[in-house]
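Morning run. Coffee first, then this:
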Amino acid sequence: MKHLLAATLMLLAPLTAHAACSATDFSIEDFKAGATGAGGAIRLSLKGKLVNHCATAAAAQVRVDAKDGSGTVLATKQGWPGGTTNIAPGQSVDFDLGRLLRYQSDMQTYSAAITDVRTW
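And here it is:
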């Protein structure tokens, strides 16, 4: 019985180690929004840096919201800045999620938040 318990704990240990990383273990730094072009060819730039403050390598999903002047969300998109690659502890990855959103003339403000964390 002791061997079964020990074997079970050894199998679950890697899962609990990865579960320790959460959205609060990541931060978004230097988030900046901009637009280039004119008319129907305006392209958004939503750049920032995703930083892993977790003790283990992991990846985080970032959601960007585009809002009008009253704060109503007009568009939302999510992306994994590191793709399917884990970010090492203390490391960062630059991202630009602007290509995911189609520009609308009433977009006034943009925000970014971390919505999910996983290990690949």
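The mean pLDDT is 88. Good start to the day.
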